[in-house]
Specification:
By secondary structure, this protein is mainly alpha-helical. The protein is built from 25 helices and two strands. It has a two-stranded antiparallel ribbon. Strand 1 and strand 2 form a beta hairpin.
Length: 638
C-alpha cells in the first residue's frame, strides 16, 4: 500500500510556489538597458552617486514593468516613481535636519498614510511602497547631492525605463501578416482582448465539466486584464486612433459572448464543440489583424445558445465595421477610493505598515548611533526591508518572511563572492546590467526577486563609494523579519480580518446591485416595442457594466482570502468561512447572469432559476450568521 505524501502547510506551500510562463525577452532587454547604462554614464561623468539613485529608480520601474498595455504602464510606473521621488526628497531633508526621535515619529506617520493608500489598489500599493523606501533611503543613505537632485535622478531613472517601455515592441510574432504591419504601440491591448475571446472558448469547452468554475474565473481575469489594458491614463477622453477604437469595439463585442458562455456553464450541460470555434477564430483575428472569415453558428436549441449565436453575429459585424464600442465599466470615483483608504482595509493596512516601518526605523537609528555598523554610514536597509515584508498585499506574512530571508542570504553571499573578484567599477556596472536583466524573470518568486535585488543594490552602493556590506545586510534583514513577524501577530484596535470583511461587503453590494437590475426587467414581458429599442440597448450596457463590477470585486475578494488563508494558523483562522461566502456570491452572480440571458430570450424567469436564487439567498443568510459579516440583504425583487 502506497501512503500519500503529506502535503506541506499552506504557509509553506505558498513560499515554495513560483509562477511559470515564457521568458519576457522584451522586459529582459529593458532591464539590461535600464540601470547599468545610467550608472556607467554617471561614473564616466564623475557623479557616481547620482548614477546610483538613477539606477535605483530604474530598478523600481523594472519591478513595476509588468505585461499589459503601454497606456497602463504609464500609470503603473510613473505614479509610484513620483511617490518615490517625493519620499526621497522628504527623507533627505528631514534626515539632515531632524534628530533621531522626531525623524522616527515622522517616518511612522508616513508609514500610516502610505499603508492606508496601499488599500486603494495595485498602483496605490506600489506608490506606498516606493514613498516609504524613498524616505528610508533619503534619510539613511548619506550622499553629497541635495534632496531635489536625488529626486530628479530617481525620476530620470524611472523615466528612462518608461521610455524604453513605450518605444520597444513587446513581441514580434504576429506583427507581420501578408505584408501588413500591426501597430506595435497597441500590442498589449491586442493580446489582452484576444485573451478574452480565448477564455470564452475555454469556458464553452469546459461547460458541463468539473473545470467550468475554474474557466469562469479565468474569463473574469481575462476581462479584468483587458479592461485595465484599454482603460489606462489618456490625454483625451476617448480613443483617438482607428486601431484603438477598433480594439475598444472588439472588447465590447466580447461582453455578450462572455455572458452567454457563463449562462451555458451555469446550466451544467455540455456544449457542442462547434460553439467554441467562433470565439477562437475571433481571437486569432484580433492577434493577427486578419479578417474573421465565416464563423460557425452554434445550434439555437436553448436561450443561452441563441444568445451565443446572436453575440457571434454582432461580433462579426463589429469586426467588419471596426468602429464604436465602449468599455462598459463603472467609474470608481475619488470618493469611493477615499472611503477605501479611510475604511477598514486602509486602517488595517496603515497601522501594520506604520508599526513595522516605525519600529524598524527606530532600531536602525539605535544600531547606527551605537556604531554597530562600524564604518558603514548607511542605516536605510532595515526599514526598507520592513516595508516589503509588512505590506499585506504582497503575499502571506510567513511566505514573505521566509522568501525575503532566504533571498537576502543568497544574494548577499553571491555578491560577496563577486565583489572579491570583479574589477571596479567595471565589474560592478556589469553586475548591475546582469541583475537588471534577471529582474523580470526573478519576479515570478519573491525569494528569487529578493536575491537579484540584493545583488543589484549592494553593487550600486559599492559603486557609490560604500565598502562591502554583505554580512551587515544579512543581519539587518533577519532582524527586520523578526520585527515584522511580531508586528504581524500583534492585536490591533478593531476586529481581525477587517480587510477581508470589507472586500466581501463590497462584493456583496455589487452582486446586490447587479441582481436588482436584472430582476427589475423580469416584468417587461417578451414582446419588445420598436420605440424601446434604444432603451433596451442602454439597459444591456448598464447590465454588462454591473456584471463586470460584480465579478471584479469578487475576484479581488477571492485573492485576499487566498492570501489570508495561507498565513500561519494564528492569522489564517480569521479567514475561516470567508471562502464559502465568496463561492456562494459567485454562484449568485452566475445565476443572475443566466437569468439575464433567459429574460432577453423569453421575457420571464425560469422557475429553476428562481429556485436557485432563493436557495442562494438562504445560504448567504446562514453563512452571514456563521461569520458575522455585515453583507447587504440579497432580496428577490421584481
Amino acid at each position: 500500500m502506497i501512503r500519500p505524501r503529506p502535503a506541506p502547510p499552506p504557509w509553506l506551500a505558498h513560499a515554495l510556489r513560483a509562477q511559470r510562463g515564457p521568458v519576457p525577452w522584451s522586459a529582459v532587454t529593458r532591464g539590461a538597458l535600464g540601470g547599468g547604462p545610467l550608472l556607467l554614464a554617471a561614473v564616466l561623468a564623475g557623479r557616481p552617486t547620482l548614477g546610483v539613485v538613477a539606477a535605483i529608480g530604474a530598478m523600481f520601474a523594472g519591478i513595476n514593468d509588468r505585461p499589459g498595455s503601454r497606456r497602463a504602464a504609464v500609470g503603473r510606473i510613473g505614479g509610484p516613481a513620483l511617490a518615490g521621488a517625493a519620499g526621497l526628497a522628504l527623507g533627505t531633508y528631514t534626515g539632515d535636519h531632524l534628530p533621531a526621535v522626531p525623524l522616527t515619529l515622522l517616518l511612522t506617520a508616513l508609514g500610516l498614510a502610505a499603508g492606508a493608500v496601499s488599500a486603494a489598489g495595485p498602483v496605490g500599493s506600489s506608490a506606498g511602497t516606493q514613498v516609504l523606501v524613498g524616505a528610508a533611503v533619503g534619510a539613511g543613505m548619506p550622499l553629497p547631492e541635495p534632496g531635489w537632485q536625488r529626486a530628479l535622478a530617481l525620476l530620470a531613472g524611472a523615466g528612462w525605463l518608461l521610455l524604453l517601455r513605450l518605444a520597444m515592441p513587446e513581441a514580434q510574432a504576429g506583427n507581420l501578416r501578408s505584408g501588413f504591419r500591426l501597430d506595435f504601440r497597441f500590442d498589449g491591448e491586442r493580446a489582452a482582448v484576444a485573451g478574452v475571446y480565448d477564455a470564452v472558448a475555454g469556458l464553452l469547452d469546459a461547460a458541463g465539466t468539473d473545470t467550468a468554475t475554474a474557466h469562469r474565473a479565468a474569463l473574469t481575469a481575462a476581462l479584468d486584464q483587458a479592461q485595465d489594458a484599454l482603460a489606462g491614463p489618456r490625454l483625451r477622453r476617448y480613443a483617438s486612433t482607428v486601431t484603438e477604437r477598433r480594439l475598444h469595439a472588439r472588447y465590447a463585442a466580447a461582453l455578450p459572448l462572455a455572458e452567454a458562455a457563463t449562462a451555458l456553464a451555469w446550466a451544467g450541460d455540455p456544449v457542442p464543440p462547434r460553439a467554441s470555434e467562433g470565439p477562437r477564430r475571433l481571437a486569432a483575428a484580433v492577434r493577427g489583424g486578419t479578417p474573421t472569415g465565416p464563423l460557425p453558428a452554434p445550434s439555437r436549441t436553448v436561450p443561452a445558445l441563441r444568445a451565443l449565436d446572436d453575440a457571434l453575429l454582432r461580433a462579426a459585424e463589429v469586426f467588419d465595421r471596426g468602429e464604436g464600442g465602449d468599455l462598459h465599466s463603472r467609474k470608481r470615483f475619488r470618493t469611493a477610493r477615499l472611503r477605501t483608504v479611510l475604511g477598514a482595509r486602509g486602517r488595517e493596512y496603515g497601522m501594520r505598515v506604520a508599526l513595522g516601518f516605525g519600529v524598524s526605523a527606530a532600531l536602525a537609528q539605535v544600531l547606527h548611533h551605537a556604531r554597530w555598523y562600524g564604518q558603514h554610514e548607511h542605516w536605510y536597509w532595515l526599514p526598507a526591508t520592513a516595508v516589503f515584508l509588512v505590506k499585506p498585499d504582497l503575499g502571506p506574512l510567513a511566505s514573505r518572511v521566509l522568501s525575503r530571508a532566504a533571498g537576502t542570504v543568497l544574494g548577499a553571499l553571491l555578491f560577496a563572492g563577486f565583489a572579491a573578484v570583479l574589477p571596479r567599477p567595471d565589474g560592478l556596472v556589469a553586475l548591475v546590467v546582469i541583475s537588471g536583466a534577471l529582474l523580470p524573470v526573478a519576479a515570478r518568486h519573491f525569494g528569487a526577486q529578493t536575491a537579484v535585488v540584493t545583488v543589484l543594490v549592494l553593487a550600486l552602493v559599492m559603486a557609490g563609494g560604500e565598502p562591502q556590506a554583505s554580512v551587515a545586510r544579512i543581519g539587518e534583514t533577519l532582524l527586520a523579519c523578526a520585527v515584522v513577524l511580531v508586528v504581524g501577530h500583534l492585536p490591533m484596535p478593531g476586529q481581525r480580518g477587517g480587510a477581508i470583511r470589507a472586500r466581501l461587503a463590497e462584493a456583496g453590494a455589487a452582486a446586490q446591485v447587479y441582481l436588482d437590475h436584472v430582476l427589475a426587467a423580469s416584468g417587461t414581458g417578451a414582446a419588445r416595442d420598436r420605440g424601446a429599442h434604444n432603451r433596451e440597448v442602454r439597459d444591456r450596457e448598464v447590465r454588462w457594466a454591473l456584471r463586470r463590477e460584480a465579478y471584479r470585486t469578487l475576484a479581488e475578494a477571492r485573492t485576499a482570502i487566498a492570501l489570508a488563508s495561507a498565513e500561519l494558523p494564528a492569522l489564517a483562522r480569521h479567514a475561516d468561512g470567508a471562502d464559502g461566502i465568496a463561492a456562494t456570491l459567485e454562484l449568485l452572480v452566475d445565476t443572475t447572469t443566466a437569468c439575464a440571458v433567459h429574460l432577453d430570450d423569453t421575457g420571464r424567469l425560469d422557475p429553476r432559476q428562481l429556485a436557485r436564487l432563493a436557495g442562494l439567498r438562504d445560504e448567504l443568510a446562514r453563512r452571514h450568521g456563521t461569520v458575522r459579516l455585515h453583507l447587504p440583504d440579497l432580496r428577490l425583487a421584481g
